[in-house]
Amino acid sequence: MPSSDHDVARCDSCGARIRWTTTAAGKALAVDADPDEAGNTAVYRDGAGRLRSRGLSSERPTLEHAEWRARPHVASCTRPRPPRRSVPRQRTGVRAPRWQGWPR
């Protein structure tokens, strides 16, 4: 359970209270600041005091040690950002073929 609000931030889109965590893969994940029993993410503080998170899966479905349940903020944001549109790269010119003996 979070004991203080010193690491609480505000969502840029909706203004809700969030906490930034780091996943096992090293990615940043925003979770709602308050614990949620319906959440599917386990959040805990590591030895250095950083917030870490992991998804509750069928392999590890229960909370361990000092973890608490949270909901990823992307699931509860009232004004999510639109997804980024992939723009195809504009290709210009022609790449020269590798001729025998080129480049020297």
Instruction: Calculate the mean pLDDT score and round it.
Output: 85
Q: How much of the residues is beta strand, in percent?
A: 25-35%
The percent of residues in helical segments reads under 10%
Order of helices and strands: EEEEEEH
The largest sheet, given as strand count, sense and whether it forms a barrel, is: 3 strands, antiparallel
Please state how the strands of the largest beta sheet are arranged side by side.
1-2-3
How does the helix and strand content classify structurally?
A: mainly beta
Q: C-alpha Rg, in Å?
A: 22 Å
Treating each run of at least 4 consecutive H or I residues as one helix, how many helices? Answer: 1
Oligomer: single chain
Name the overall outline.
elongated
Question: Tally of extended strands?
Answer: 6
C-alpha end-to-end distance: 65 Å
Poorly predicted segments: none
Structural write-up:
This protein is 4% helix and 26% strand. The strands form two sheets. The protein has a three-stranded antiparallel beta sheet with strand order 1-2-3. The chain has one helix at residues 73-76; strands at residues 8-10, 17-22, 28-32, 41-45, 51-55, 68-70. With 104 residues, the chain is mainly β. The model has no long low-confidence stretch (mean pLDDT 85). The chain is elongated and about 65 Å long. A hairpin with a 5-residue loop joins strand 4 and strand 5 (51-55). The longest helix is centred in the C-terminal third of the chain and has 4 residues, at 73-76.
Brief summary:
With 104 residues, the chain is mostly beta strands.
Could you list some keywords that capture this structure?
3-stranded antiparallel beta sheet; mainly beta; 1 helix; elongated; 104 residues
